[in-house]
Amino acid sequence: MKTVLTASLIALGVLFSGAALANPDLAKAKCGKCHEMDKKKKGPPYKETAAKYKGKADAEATILKFITDPKGDHPEMEGVKPEEAKTVVQWILKQ
Q1: For the chain (length 95 residues), average pLDDT per consecutive 10?
Q2: For residue 88, how many C-alpha atoms fall within 13 Å in the half-sphere facing its CB?
Q3: pLDDT of residue 23
Q4: pTM as predicted
Q5: Does domain 22-93 have CATH number 1.10.287.110?
Q6: What does the domain layout of the chain look like in residue ranges?
Q7: Which residues contact 88 (CB under 8 A, 6 or more apart)?
Q8: Phi, psi (5° rounding) for residue 38?
Q9: SS3 35
Q10: What is the pLDDT at residue 8?
């Protein structure tokens, strides 16, 4: 029984780490027109955003709401699944 539980936990870890690894690709595809890692384009760099929200408990929710607001200025996020948007935000906050 412990073996099955351990294998299940490892599988979940691999699944979630795979989603986390995909974030730079999704961020580049959806956000790259306006954002870069270190340079300002139309929007702030990822590192600047991460620094701005560092240590704030509501950082993830705040950014997620901002980028998924249908009335906002992120139309490229239309059609992105909520869990994908959340993983992109988590990736940005780790920069």
Answers
A1: 46 43 80 95 97 98 95 92 94 94
A2: 24
A3: 73
A4: 0.73
A5: no
A6: 22-93
A7: 23, 26, 27, 30, 31, 67, 80
A8: -120, -15
A9: strand
A10: 43
